[in-house]
Each structure stands twice: as C-alpha cells, then as structure tokens.
Write a structure and sequence with these properties.
single chain; Rossmann fold; nine-stranded mixed β-sheet; 9 strands
C-alpha cells in the first residue's frame, strides 16, 4: 500500500521549518523585552532606583515642611583653634551609616553675626540626609569675598580632616549663607564651579553681576528687606545668573532681612528640595520646584526654570 506523505512523513522532515519559526518567535520575544526594558529604564521610578545618591523615603509636602526629617542627628563642635581659613563651627550629621555617605553643606552667617544665627538650619537639613557645617567667620566684620573663601575652607576641612569625613561624599557639596554670608555663597560658587548647589539667603554684595556662576543657585529674598533690598541685591543677583544655569528666585512675603535667622518653614522647604535635587540628583523632589511655586501667604514671588534635564 502507498504511504500518505502527509500522514507518514519521514522523521525530521518538518524540523527546519519548525526551527525557523522558533527563531522568529525568540527574536520577537527579545525585541518586546528590549522595548519593555527601555521604557522601564526611562521611567522616573527606575531612575530613582538607579540613583546611588538618593537618601531617605519618597518626599511629601509634609515631610519637607517638617521640623525634622527621617534621620536622627548628632552634632560636634569644631574649635577655631583646630582649623585654618575660617572660625570653626558646629557639624550636624545623620547618625546612621547604613545608607552610605551623604552630601554636605557649609553655611555662613551674616555681618556681625555668629554661627548661632543659622543654627536652626543645622539639624533641620541634617535630618533630611546631609552633613551640615554652620561656621563662624574669622571676624564678624569679614566681607562677602572673604566669607566665600571661608565657606570653601570649611568644606575642605569637613571632607579632609573632620571627624565625620568618612560619612561625606566629597564630590557632592553645597554652600549657603545669610546676608554677607549669602554674598559669600555666590563668591564661593563663582570660585569653585564643582559645587553642586548654592543658596544665598537675603544676600548682600557690592558685586551685582554673577555671569560666572554655573552652580545651581536658589536665591532667597525678602519683600521687607531694608538692609539688602531685593531691587538692588537679590533680584539683580538672580537676573545676572546665566540662563543655562539651574536658577530660582524666591521672595518671601511679609519677611525682613533677618527672617533667615529664625526657623522658617518656607526657607527650609525649598532649601531641602533644592539640595536634594542638585546635591543628591534626586528627581523625586522636582515636584516641589516644577511647576514653579505660586504666590501665597509666605511667597511674594517665585521665578526660575524647571531643573534642566527634567
């Protein structure tokens, strides 16, 4: 009897076609997987998960306004006799080392003032995941250019010689300051472009133009400032920063030149967000900076750009 070739094909006769189909199916599966992987990598969640500098839980409005963040904080005093280039100060730092190293910020006081005038910011920022150094200047009469050099000297001490240097990522540093210390903050950013963030608070400086600054800079002014009026200080400082620089101008409503010397939720909220975004590269905090904050009971005006690369 003649065999039916359709029902009694020789062993292996259809395998080449089957193998081809299997290869095509494997290729299609790999292509789909690649597309899924690419979309996952470009999603904000994946970026956050891949960010080695991210510290602490996902932020909320209440968490950045809180008096204390998620980290327990300790502090240590630094004598002026133990340092060179500045007047000593107090270091505030997270007690936990389980998350690795932290970014660091040095903060300078204003004309005739001491580190105590900025002490409230120490534990408030440190508890959010930073090492914070509130410093005294060599003399209380030092001018902004000197205060800028002293901020940099303080960061160098902090990362090279301090007792907490092992807790700090020396590539992720920022500066803050009040009044002439705010003017010094701009001087420091101009001198050291590697700084990741600068926050001048009701800043004062005879130099009104800052086209050399490439460090992401948040300038905080006060609508009632009669010592460093925003029209002749904070506003021209902001407007002369390069448009290519990440920059913002926050003008406090119902505030004075000395508002940064007291616990201030608006200053803390946007300082935390700025430092997190630019020192920690933490895009989870962009939601508080972009869209730009609107005028409110505490904000007279806010100008700026959304963080580049957002």
């Amino acid at each position: 009897m003649q065999q039916n070739p359709h029902t009694h094909a020789a062993p292996g006769a259809s395998r080449p076609a089957f193998r081809g189909a299997r290869r095509r199916l494997a290729g299609l599966t790999a292509a789909v997987a690649a597309v899924v992987a690419l979309s996952t990598l470009t999603s904000p969640g994946a970026q956050a998960a891949d960010n080695p500098y991210e510290r602490g839980p996902a932020p909320t409005e209440s968490s950045i306004e809180a008096l204390r963040g998620p980290y327990s904080v300790a502090d240590t005093s630094v004598s002026s006799l133990a340092v060179t280039g500045f007047g000593g100060g107090t270091i505030y730092y997270p007690t936990s080392t389980s998350d690795g190293t932290f970014g660091a910020v040095a903060i300078a006081p204003g004309f005739t003032a001491y580190q105590s005038s900025m002490a409230w910011l120490g534990p408030r920022l440190a508890s959010q995941g930073f090492v914070v150094f509130t410093i005294d200047t060599n003399t209380t009469l030092d001018q902004p250019d000197s205060r800028g050099r002293q901020l940099l000297a303080a960061l160098d001490y902090l990362t090279e010689r301090s007792s907490v240097r092992g807790r700090i990522d020396s590539s992720r540093l920022g500066v803050m300051g009040h009044s002439m210390g705010g003017g010094g903050t701009l001087e420091a950013a101009k001198s050291r472009p590697s700084l990741q963030a600068a926050i001048p608070l009701t800043p004062w400086n005879l130099d009104k133009s800052w086209p050399e600054v490439s460090t992401p800079t948040l300038i905080v002014g006060a609508d009632g400032d009669t010592i460093a009026p925003v029209a002749s200080h904070a506003e021209p400082f902001y407007s002369t920063l390069p448009s290519a620089t990440d920059r913002a101008y926050l003008e406090l409503n119902g505030a004075t030149h000395f508002s940064p010397n007291l616990s201030n939720t608006t200053i803390a909220k946007y300082s935390v967000s700025w430092l997190k975004r630019f020192i920690d590269n933490d895009t989870r905090y962009e939601q508080f900076l972009c869209p730009l904050p609107r005028p409110s009971l505490t904000i007279e005006e806010y100008r700026g750009n959304c963080p580049h690369g957002s």
